[in-house]
Amino acid sequence: MFIVANWKMNLSIKDSIALAKEYGKLFKKSSANIVVCPSFTSLPFVCKMLESLPVAVGAQDVFWEKAGAFTGEISAEDLKELGAEYVIIGHSERREYLGEEDWMIRRKIEAAFTTRNLTPILCIGESAEDHERDEREEVLSRQLSEALDGLSLGIGQSLIIAYEPIWAIGTGLVPEPEEIAYVTDVIRVLLRRYFGDRSDRACAVLYGGSIDESTVVPLMESGVDGFLVGSASLKAREFYRLAERVIN
Ligand code: PEP
Fold first, then answer.
1. Distance 68 CA to ligand 1 centre (A)
2. Binding site membership of 154 for ligand 1 (Cβ less than 6 Å)
3. N or C, where is the chain less crowded by C-beta within 10 Å?
4. 211-233 pLDDT, tens digit each
5. Ligand 1 contact, 210 CB (< 6 A)
6. d(Cα 179, Cα 39) in Å, to the nearest integer?
7. Range 134-142 contact pairs with CB under 8 angstroms and sequence separation of 24 or more
8. 93 counts as catalytic
9. In whole angstroms, what is the distance from residue 225 CA to residue 215 CA?
10. What pTM does this model have?
11. In this structure, what DSSP letter does residue 172 have?
């Protein structure tokens, strides 16, 4: 099981270090894959703080080129050098506020795939309008096919897909467990189409959107491989209780 904490742009460097310290105390041992994604500026400090603990670190974005005149961008190799093992790609907030498009997301996934031991966490999800128009499957299938077009899974390469309906992020609304189970199956079928049967071992499908220690409980039966957690990851004890529910 994966439990990924997305701290977004919520914490100062000082606060990120303090929260990572609390995570470190609580997650001395864990049977789940706990991944913490701080901001770029906090990343080196959080990596250092958690380096000998069973909590992995991820970045919230990456650029697709290795180096060059790309002001403000960060390469996959730089993330690796700092100690990041995961990177969130295509979060709906970046799609909405930064104009991130599927072709960019595809290049970012490729950059992660060509960097050893850097696993992309690809976020996909329909908007409220798509949902009302009953176009969820078309949207998810398009987002997946454009992000993965022509890519292959190398030996030892993994991919995490986070299904995050935009209408569920930060709203307190959560789809029914049966809906999440259905979408998870649809995503797994599509992944098999792109990567063959290897995808069953190499890919994980998570759910994200308004998960906390109580909303997670009914979703344990939905067949997902874990959860991507936003606001409930900003308090160490709350996140730990949530993780305990998932693990036990
Ligand atoms: C997210 O933005 O990835 C997310 C899951 O946020 P929240 O848990 O706050 O809905």
1. 33
2. no
3. C
4. 999 999 999 999 999 999 999 99
5. yes
6. 31
7. 136/165, 136/183, 137/186, 140/183, 140/186, 140/187, 140/190, 141/186, 141/190, 142/102
8. no
9. 16
10. 0.97
11. S
